[in-house]
Amino acid sequence: MKKKRISLDDIAISLGVSRSLVSLVLNNKDAKHGISAKTKQKVLTKAKELNYKPNHFARGLRLGKSFTLGLIVSDIANGFYSRIARNLEDLAEENGYNLITCSTDEDIERELRLIKLLREKQVDGLIISSSQNNPIEFNRLRAEGFPVVLIDRYFDGLNVPAVVVRNRDGAKQAALHLLEQGYKRPLVLAIDPVHVYTIRERREGFIDEMKLHSINPIVVNIPFDNPFKGVEDEIEKLLNNNQLSDCIFALNNNLATACLQVLRKHNIDVPKNIGLVSFDDVPYFSFMNPSVTAVSQPIDDISSVAFNTLMGWIRNDQNKLMENPIYLPIDFVVRESTIKNR
Which CATH class is domain 8-54? Predict the structure, then answer.
């Protein structure tokens, strides 16, 4: 026989108080309504004693919310996005929400399907690192009043909040550092699709700075689905033509990791034979041999600003709807992979 679910009425009857009082306590509204700390504790103790489990579905129907958020990124296996996902999951939990996370594999149509799917599941809002090539879908969501915040990527003409870093500044710092270290023949490794805002900004920022010093980098686009093979094919082609560059600027951490694997496989010493800079920092870059020079993004800040901005929209708190886009600073971390005389 199925055990009866404990209700607010059961708690109220056992304590001899009203159902509304129990509801106020369990929804953290006791202080606002002048309920004493002693009474609050009695309610909480009784709820625990009776093993009360709130009915989130019923609460959601009552309030018109699912208390679920959606996160859409290109690849949850990427260390940058997995750390953001973990941060957002913790923030959601602290605020009584659940988080559904999806990967697009940089597929524009798949991203649109995921947005549709999550909306059909009645999520209250979305945080997205988009692979789209225009802001049409997000401006449409804004026009419908649906809360959405972009992270990492931005579009001209975008009408929804976006939390990004100054990618051009980071790429410029990478270029200046390599020039200071005496590197003169840079290879830029970009990841498809190249229209993505972050990749375009990093590539152009690096190239523009190098051109100011009369240097024209080689630029190669690496397929998203197999970065190791793409990097290996390019390195082998340069080796066969005796044209190996003296440094590499990898536009994300997956490319930088693939570079390290390929260079080690071919016994090419970093930084003796070639320097390496990654745009994106991941924990293992700091303790591997050689440690990797990187543009570090403020992942904790990206997560918290995006979450608070989204919740501000959901809760109709205009004070948390910041100007667009919201730029956060980067940090350039110099390590062994670019220091020739170490």
Answer: mainly alpha
Bridge partners (DSSP) of residue 127 are: 71, 149
Crossing angle, helix 8-15 and helix 37-49, to 10 degrees? 120
Q: Hey, what CATH topology would domain 167-296 get? A: Rossmann fold (3.40.50)
Evaluate whether 157 touches 103 at the Cβ level (below 8 Å). no
The residues pairing with 163 across neighbouring beta strands, listed in sequence order, are 151, 326
Tens-digit pLDDT profile for residues 99-142:
999 999 999 999 999 999 999 999 999 999 999 999 999 999 99
Q: Which residues pair with 188 in a beta bridge?
A: 219, 249
Q: Which fold has domain 66-165+299-329?
A: Rossmann fold (3.40.50)
Specify the pTM.
0.81
Write the pLDDT tens digit of every residue in 274-333: 999 999 999 999 999 999 999 999 999 999 999 999 999 998 875 555 567 999 999 999
